[in-house]
């Protein structure tokens, strides 16, 4: 069809007709790209959403779905991404994916991007050295998706206190309003109650990037801390947390501590982390799902026997990307709401360039992602009152060293990231604690820390620290006949003979010549499977 128009004719055409003509004779492009979600409201963390898209012209394997929270985040500040090619129908320009989401206390939005091979930027890489997807060509945005605010608290987890007849419970809400814990010996009669203390931290409390940068910071919510008191020994208690106005959690239960028992059941590991249903800036730990699965199975099999979990450093591997803490607590809640969950600090919770104790020989770097121990210190509350000032606007670092008895075992937790040399508060604590153990009551003593004193790993950068630990801490362990020493940091299982200064304890055929040196075991294989080169 040939159409000829002169300028005089065009001047007489109404503007509305010009618009219609422009639509008729403009070369046709692809249909409009759209992206939608299956629901606008999810009930609780872990609930799935289906993301659908259509209209992508000449789809590419590099096209991707960006996951954003809050919705006003800049395009580069996604929390994760999934390539559209993960959908079996992606080549048609349409597809869908379903993923579970965690409540981040702000809405989600999903965006479709076109990314081409020519735009791959080698300077923008994730931790595995894969290029991060480009955000230059935004094709579509979804509507917002949120969570029901009346469903009650999340991230429920337990811990021992300094008193045998107590159990601590912590959880997160979106608004910080007054909340409570109700508990009792029957699920239908929770006739005891207590209030909670509320804390939170802000972006300015973080010490370095990415924790204090828009790419890593997200609102952590309000952290509640309550204590259930006057518990009878070795009894199953039922509890729930929340409020009438904000909603209550589901009813949970635990078995209270019994120090008179001659049986101790503990699940001990290090370096677990968390898994995500999307790719993000950092390596996540898919194997952590199996760890929680098998522990949950074993807890159910124990029935009414008390137990606890010990996670010795490298907790969530958030490293400054705060939503990974939310993901972690959502992942552990099915077990941490049933048994106490105890921790000690690792390099990935703490280390940052200006940390206050950083001797020349230490291999402390930037592994904490700028968190400088803040989320770790406030999201957990372990027994004791150990703390160290950060030398910055951040609150003091807590949960560094402490101990407790359960059954026939005395457990000691130490920090390998803060001062442990003679004269330090930590050294004095370790010395006094080990010397004060009643071995008739607790004949077994287990010490736990993150960086190992002994390992077959050829991590030369930690060699100087191991030398100081052997020089200064090992004599305390040997003198006080510590039974077992557990370490993480190295992502494998290693068990050594009873050791003292690289010398194995000897045992005669009749067992009478055995030297009671501590047995060292490395257990940093609960989730993280990547081992750094020497």
User: What is the number of helical segments per DSSP (H or I, 4+ residues)?
Assistant: 9
Largest sheet: 8 strands, antiparallel
Number of domains: 2
The CATH architecture of the largest domain comes to 4-Layer Sandwich
- Structural class by SSE content: alpha+beta
Termini Cα gap? 72 Å
Describe this structure in words.
Its EC number is 3.1.3.2. Belongs to the metallophosphoesterase superfamily. Purple acid phosphatase family. This is Purple acid phosphatase. It is found in: Secreted. Its cofactor is Fe cation. With 534 residues, the chain is of the alpha+beta class. It folds into 2 domains: 34-147, Immunoglobulin-like, CATH 2.60.40; 154-523, Metallo-dependent phosphatases (Purple Acid Phosphatase, chain A, domain 2, 4-Layer Sandwich). Helices cover 16% and strands 26% of the residues. It has helices at 7-12, 15-25, 288-302, 323-336, 347-350, 374-379, 425-435, 463-472, 474-479; strands at residues 34-37, 41-42, 48-54, 64-68, 80-83, 95-100, 109-114, 137-141, 146-147, 154-159, 167-173, 180-184, 192-199, 222-228, 236-243, 247-248, 252-255, 266-269, 308-312, 341-344, 387-388, 397-398, 402-406, 409-413, 444-448, 484-487, 493-500, 503-504, 519-523. The strands form 7 sheets. Strands 10, 11, 12, 13, 14, 15, 16 and 17 form an 8-stranded antiparallel β-sheet that branches. A hairpin with a 7-residue loop joins strand 10 and strand 11 (167-173). Helix 3 runs parallel beside helix 4 (323-336). The longest helix has 15 residues, at 288-302. The protein is globular and about 80 Å long.
